């Protein structure tokens, strides 16, 4: 199972969205987690609503900080905003990626819908590429 960690500044919008979407698309092959450098008190309600509209399970999503993953190793660490990139690069992993989004603590419903769709497209591409790399063509 490939372990993927999504890191953003607040763990309120982008990283929990990414965690939920990867679990939704490929929980049988990926162990997804998310953290924030400075976690917000709660996950943004509009982000949760945007996920619910797509029938994505958000049960178990909650704000977490870097301390929650201390001494853990990940196959892939993905930074989702510039403010979190340095902290994300310091987390032990085989691969690092930077997908920069505007990690606002609170966003409008149209903004949340847009971010969910943008992250969904990147998650689909990540899964496709990873799956292709793991399967031999011969």
From TrEMBL:
Pfam families named among the record's database cross-references: LMWPc
Keyword Heme: no
GO biological process: response to arsenic-containing substance
Superkingdom of this protein's organism: Bacteria
Keyword Protease among UniProt keywords: no
InterPro entries: Ptyr_pPase, Ptyr_pPase_sf
Ranges of residues in domain Phosphotyrosine protein phosphatase I: 2-129
Keyword annotations from UniProtKB, A to Z: Arsenical resistance
Gene3D superfamilies, per the entry: 3.40.50.2300
TM regions (residue ranges): none
SUPFAM superfamilies in UniProt: Phosphotyrosine protein phosphatases I
Protein name according to UniProt: ArsR family transcriptional regulator
């Amino acid at each position: 199972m490939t372990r993927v960690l999504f890191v953003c500044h607040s763990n309120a919008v982008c990283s929990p969205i990414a965690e939920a979407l990867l679990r939704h698309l490929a929980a049988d092959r990926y162990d997804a987690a998310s953290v924030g450098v400075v976690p917000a008190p709660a996950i943004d309600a509009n982000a949760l609503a945007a996920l619910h509209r797509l029938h994505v399970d958000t049960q178990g999503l909650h704000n977490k900080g870097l301390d929650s993953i201390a001494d853990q190793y990940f196959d892939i660490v993905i930074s989702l905003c510039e403010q979190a990139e340095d902290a994300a690069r310091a987390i032990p992993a085989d691969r690092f990626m930077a997908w920069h989004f505007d990690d606002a603590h609170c966003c409008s419903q149209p903004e949340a819908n847009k971010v969910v769709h943008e992250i969904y497209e990147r998650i689909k591409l990540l899964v496709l590429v990873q799956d292709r790399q793991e399967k031999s063509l011969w």
